Amino acid sequence: MRAKITYAVTAAVLVVYFVLVGTRGVMLIETGTVLTVTFGVAVLVLPVIGLWFLWKNTQFVRKANQLAAELDAEGGLPVDELKRTPSGRIDRDSADEVFALRKAETEDAPDDWRSWFRLAIAYHDARDTPRARKAMQRAIALREGRPPVEA
Questions:
Q1: How much is the pLDDT for 119?
Q2: C or N terminus of the chain, fewer CB within 10 Å?
């Protein structure tokens, strides 16, 4: 729940920022000189890109959470079997062992979104966020019946 609140607050702050930047861009365009109109258009591009990125990221999180809920209902969520350091951080060797198991599971069933979801969790636990995201994107695509995008 804490993560959802943090995400919502961050998204709200970004939207406010995009509105403020957008109004500045409009003000520059309204000035009417070639230079200010050029800067105004350039400034307006930033909120558009930011809103698009925020929308895509929100859709990704929503779909990943739907997969997690479905897998949980099936009883297929991975059990947290990772060893922890005294400070509470995940032990690297433990994460590597679980990752090897999840990778083998995914190689055995490459068209199963469930195995890709669990592999994404293993990547995340191993602190490999880019690969975790790609594995989750593949799980989402497989669940939706779309061909996965090859990276």
A1: 92
A2: N
Contact 94, 113 (CB under 8 A): no
Q: What are the structure tokens assigned to 39, written together?
A: 């800067």
Task: Say what angle helices 129-143 and 34-74 make with each other, to 10 degrees.
Answer: 70
Phi and psi torsions of 62, nearest 5°? -60, -45
Q: Tell me the C-alpha to C-alpha distance, in Å, between residue 114 and each of 50, 107, 133, 138, 151.
A: 31, 12, 15, 10, 20
CA 89/CA 83 separation, integer angstroms: 9
Say if pTM beats, i.e. exceeds, 0.85: no
Average pLDDT on 84-111 reads: 85
Of 128, 94, 129, 101, the C-alpha closest to 115 is 101
